[in-house]
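The instructor's notes for this session suggest beginning with a concrete chain rather than abstract definitions. Hand out the sequence below and ask the class to guess, before any prediction is shown, which regions might be ordered.
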Amino acid sequence: MALIEFRGVQKAFGPKRVFIDLNLDIHEGESITIIGGSGMGKSVLLKLLIGLLETDGGSILFDGEQIVNASPKTLTKVRRRIGMLFQGAALFDSLSVGENVAYGLREHLQMSEEAIAERVHESLDSVGLPGIEDMWPADLSGGMKKRVGLARAIAVHPEVLLYDEPTTGLDPINVTRINRLILSLKEKLQVTSIVVTHDMQSAFITSDRLAMIDDGHVIFQGTPDEIRRTEDRRVRDFIEGNADEDLDTETLLRRGG
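After discussion, reveal the predicted structure:
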């Protein structure tokens, strides 16, 4: 049985249908990257999983627990098992780095202040930023913010890590650093990793498997080698960066293009 199961998931925002019939299995311990064009719902999928958005239909199971229409108690239990690196890191400007990393520990776990401080130090060390607990988000570079956001995500010792566009806006050195962190944390923490990205180079480096969303469905699933060999034109155009000149106006409007 898969750790996470999306079955017939539907989601729309007004007239725009993001998911029509989305089906996807994610297996324990794997690193899967979700790819697809802008507006195809990659980040929406992550938010549905942790209950930040509600589905319009279908089923989402996490380790056998139904997420759709789940009680607050069930959602809280599931969220404790999941860490998320939000796009832009989403740090609290009014909190120090250490307080940001400690936030989930204080919200969800019963820990002493001494244990929290130790976990914060351990988490910052894991992302290559030891000893910066007293700094403020405003003092950090973009790459450092991403790593602090990742430290906050791993501080709760999650079973699943969600990465929403982890390399967007970073220079090549920091892109490489984040890619290495995704790989090392998967091995060190034995987590299941779900990455949303437009960066195909990063996707090929960090993924055991990739899934592409297009027009409300998962249209491809496979290993990096399998996606490189696919004859599906939509997949090939995306991974090779080819513009599709043949889409009619109705299709472009449906896609949000």
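Then share the key points. Strands lie at 4-13, 16-26, 31-35, 57-62, 65-66, 82-85, 160-164, 192-196, 209-214, 217-222. Confidence is low (pLDDT under 50) at residues 245-250, 252-257.
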